[in-house]
Amino acid sequence: MPAILPDGDPAPAHGRLPSSAVQQVKDAEASGSARTFSLYVHVPFCTVRCGYCDFNTYTAEDLGPGASRTSYAGTVTGELDFAAEALSGSGVPDRTLHTVFFGGGTPTLLPASDLVSILGRARELWGFEPGAEITTEANPDSVTRESLQELAEGGFTRVSFGMQSAVPHVLATLERTHRPENVPAAVGWAREAGLEVSLDLIYGTPGESLADWRTSVEAAVALEPDHVSAYSLIVEEGTKFGAQVSRGVVPDVDPDDQADKYLLTEELLGAAGFRWYEVSNWARDLEGAGVHQARHNLAYWRDQDWWGAGPGAHSHVAGVRWWNAKHPAAYAQRLATGVSPAVGRETPDADARLLEQVMLGVRLAEGLDASVLDQAPDGGQSARQQIAALIGEGLLDGRAALAGRLVPTLQGRLLDDAIVRRLLGF
C-alpha cells in the first residue's frame, strides 16, 4: 500500500455509496455474475522501516497519541462496524466475505489474539464463503510456533512470509531484520499449524549477483511453499533507497539484470512445478487446478469489491474508490468521533477504467478479454491492428488471441507496460 494518497473528491462523513454503485452490485447479482466481496486489513507497524519501502508503515518512534499498537485491534474493529453500517445503509445486498487479507507493515507484530479478534468481528458482521482464503503477511522473525497455531485455530488459512532473499548481504542491503535460517523454522511451524505458505522474494537489489538470486530462488523452492511472489526492486522517490541512488551512494536498478533474474525465476519455479498466473506470482500447480493461487489478489486484478480497513487503506465497490486517512493517529481520531475514516473518494471515468482493465488483464495468465478494447474511443480499431503486430513480435500468445484472450508470452511479461501503451495508443 503506497504511502502517498491520490487526489480525489472529499469522502462523505457517513461513508455511504452512491446509488449508481449500489445498482451495479444489484444488477450483477441479478444476472448471476455477482461481484465478490473481500476485506483488507492494514496493520501499519514495523520494527524497522526498510530502505526500499514506500508503504504506509511506521516504527514506534513515528507514532503519536492515539496510534498505540495495544489499542489498534479495537480501532480497526470499530471501522469494521462502521463499514457494515455504511454498506447496509447504502442498500448494498448482504454478501459474505470471499477472502480476507491482513497486510502491512507487519501484521504479526500485533499479538495473534488481536488478529484473531479482528477476524472474529469480520466473521460476525459478514460471515465467510465456504473455503474462504484468510491470509496474514508476516516477517519470519515475527512469529512463533505458538502464535501461528493460534492464528490457524482462529480461522486463518494462509501466511505470506517476507523472505525477500536467502543471501545475508542482500538482506543487509534491504535492511531486513531476519536471518536466512529464520525462514525454514517459520515455514515449518506454519506447516505444523496447517497453514498454506507463500514466500515473497525481491530481485535486483544493488550488489545482488545472478548467482545470489539463484541461491534465493532455490532456497525458496527447497521449502516447498504453495505459492511464490517475486518482485523486482523499484526505487521509489521519497524512500531511503531513492535518496541513496540520487546521491550516487548505491547504483540504480539495472533493467537488463532484472530481466535476467526474472527469466531465471521462471526457469527454476517452472521446473519445480510452479505455474505463473500473474506476472510476479507463481502457484504450485502440479495438477493444473490452480488451487494455490492467491484468491485475494485475484479479486483485485479481476476488479471485484473490497473494503480496506486501517490507516491509508483503499477500498473499491463497483467502480467507486476511496481511501482512509494516512496517519494512524488521524485515522483513529476520525473513528472516535463517529466520522468515516475515508478522506477521499473517486469514480474513475471510462478512459481511466479502460486503462486499468488493460493494465491488469495483460498481467494475467488468463489474459485480457479482447472485447474490452471495444470500449476505446475508436471502437478498438487501432488496438486490433496492434494485436497482430504484438503477436508477430512474440509478445502476445497467438493461439490465445484467436480465442479472444490477450495473454503475454514470457518475453511479453518482461514488456507488459509496452504492451499496454501500444494497445491503448500512447
Biggest β-sheet description? 9 strands, mixed
For the biggest β-sheet, the strand order reads 7-8-6-5-4-3-2-1-9
First-last Cα distance: 27 Å
If helices are DSSP runs of H or I spanning 4 or more residues, what is the number of helices? 16
Portion of residues within helices? 40-55%
Q: What best-fitting shape do the alpha-carbon axes yield? A: globular
Mean pLDDT value: 91
CATH superfamily of the largest domain: tm_1862 like domain
Rg (CA only): 22 Å
Highest CATH level, the class of the largest domain = Alpha Beta
What does this structure look like?
By secondary structure, this protein is an alpha/beta fold. The protein has two domains: 19-301, Alpha-Beta Horseshoe (pyruvate-formate lyase- activating enzyme), CATH 3.80.30.20; 348-426, Arc Repressor Mutant, subunit A (Orthogonal Bundle), CATH 1.10.10. Helices cover 41% and strands 19% of the residues. The protein contains 16 helices and 14 strands. The protein has a nine-stranded mixed beta sheet with strand order 7-8-6-5-4-3-2-1-9, with helices on both faces. The chain has a three-stranded antiparallel beta sheet with strand order 10-11-12. Helix 2 packs parallel to helix 3, helix 7 runs parallel beside helix 9 and helix 13 runs antiparallel to helix 16 (416-424). The longest helix has 22 residues, at 69-90. It is globular and about 55 Å long. The model has no long low-confidence stretch (mean pLDDT 91). InterPro entries: Aldolase_TIM, Coproporphyrinogen-III_oxidase, Elp3/MiaA/NifB-like_rSAM, HemW-like, rSAM, rSAM_sf. Keywords: 4Fe-4S, Chaperone, Cytoplasm, Heme, Iron, Iron-sulfur, Metal-binding, S-adenosyl-L-methionine. Residues 31-275 form the Radical SAM core domain.
